[in-house]
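U., I forgot to send this yesterday:
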Amino acid sequence: MPRPNLPEVASEALARHNMIRPGDHIVVAVSGGPDSVALLHLLHALRERLETKLTVAHLNHQLRSIESDKDAAFVQDLASSLDLACVVESADVPDYCERNGCSLETGAREVRYQYLERVVSDLEAQKIATGHTADDQAETILMRLVRGTGVDGLSGIRPVRDDLVIRPLLDVRREDVMAYLESHDLSYRIDPSNSETYHLRNRIRQTLIPGLEKDFNPEIVRALGRLGDVVRFESAFMEEIVDRSYQEVVRYLRPDRLGVDAAAYLEAPIPVQRRLVRRFLGVLGVHEAGFGYDHIEQFRHLATKQKSGQQLNLPNGLVAERRRDEIVVGSKLFDPFDIVVSVPGTIAIASAGGSLHTEVVPVKRAPKTSDYTRVVFNADEITYPLHIRSRLQGDRFMPFGMKGTKSLKSLFNERRIPRMDRCRIPVIANKSGILWVVGLRRSRIAPIDPKTERVLVMSWTED
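Result:
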């Protein structure tokens, strides 16, 4: 079978996926390995036809001691031989991985793309080109399948990501890259770690794919590439449906909270429900790698519950709670607080998301309150110090206009306050008890009467 004409294959991929435009400045990521060297050589040969400008970028990951330095020197010499500018930088990938709790493979990829995006910004370039091949695509799809993935994971590596990263060789076999290098007498660097079998990707490359090619399908790499292509387009179509459904089911979105219409969510088809859960977690900052099938199915099961108050723990300190007609997804992380209140004064309570303002004024200047974001008390009957604190187990207070006491739990249930929000509601108290459940109810302690001369005014403002 004749070898493909790589310049034509790359040109066709660039055009089919609208990877570049005339005049684009392309930052070519070159590690020194075969794939990236071939990519640079191809783009350099095509640069006049494509009307593009090239800059070489190399990141020294500091993973192979002196060999990493030799890689950097090799790339610089290669760029110089092609009369191209070259940007080289070093990064302490092991330190990054330790600080972020990720594998070397993941950390190296994240640091590398952060570097490349920074180079693009600094140079005011338009694209990043990487040398991913059809073999990389097959390895990625199989690796995700082995680890467990949803449909989107089978889409593999995208030819174009965010209109920034382009992969012109994604339809090219690695063996064809090697043949191209040999035919042009191009040298390259080999990373010995690519042969170490403790990496899952390496085991897939060295054992699984050859076994599949030998015993099942000699064209397995191209078959997986076609699978990725089909899934990618179908997933894009599904995401358009999810976009519309998301607007219909989400009642509100705050930085740390999202409210979902339970009935509308359950009306969506199951594939849309699953994708919606991924969207909910994504907008609240959970990376897709941080949750899996079980989290999604548990969320769907929670949505079918009719009883309020049932909760589901989710990654990144999030919790989903079933309320009467909605599901609330938000952060369960909370720092209890108990702070002495200065009168007069203003105090910000980050855990509660607002500020308390206090002042003492003559009774004739007492504000007329229509809600419980501002309350007034007989200042001469108040015992100091006052505390603003989070609720405590068993808290009770004496509601204004009622006899006896009521538990905060009962008040929260009546007001339909989600459990995850209850600790954030401030309580103003002194040794006499709770004066005010902020925003909800005041107590009958220190009421205003005809003999009152001065009033304590307390008001709460949300951030």
